[in-house]
Amino acid sequence: MEDFNKSLSELMCSTGAEQKSTSFLVNDTDIKYEAMVECINNLLNTGEVPNLFEADPATKDKIMQLVRTKSTAEGYNGDQWN
């Protein structure tokens, strides 16, 4: 399950923060735990997986840095939407 969460967090980083188009394919034979089905269901229904990044603050910081870099490169600043 730990490998699944790591792969899912890497997928979320590349699609969200780096804005890479991605396909996420899962076969029924790949699902070994019920928690995997719950994660996929949450991702499809809400676009997020609860507590996916809670355990690793370094990953959160990496994501925020990627978003900052991308938004700065595209000319957005913090008060543009105010």
Structural account:
The structure is a single chain. The protein is mainly alpha-helical and 82 residues long. The chain has one domain. The chain is 56% helix and 0% strand. The protein has helices at 2-17, 34-46, 57-73. The longest helix is centred in the last third of the chain and has 17 residues, at 57-73. The protein is elongated. The termini are far apart.
Largest sheet: none
Q: Give the termini distance in whole angstroms.
A: 42 Å
The H/E string reads: HHH
Question: So what's the overall shape?
Answer: elongated
Secondary-structure class: mainly alpha
Overall number of domains: 1
Number of strands: 0
Strand-residue proportion:
under 5%
Which stretches are poorly predicted, pLDDT < 50 over at least 5 residues? Answer: none
Oligomer: single chain
User: What's the mean pLDDT score?
Assistant: 82
Number of discrete helical segments: 3
CA gyration radius, whole angstroms: 15 Å
Q: Work out the helicity level.
A: 55-70%
Brief write-up:
The chain has helices spanning 2-17, 34-46, 57-73.
Which key terms come to mind for this protein?
single chain; 82 residues; mainly alpha; 56% helix
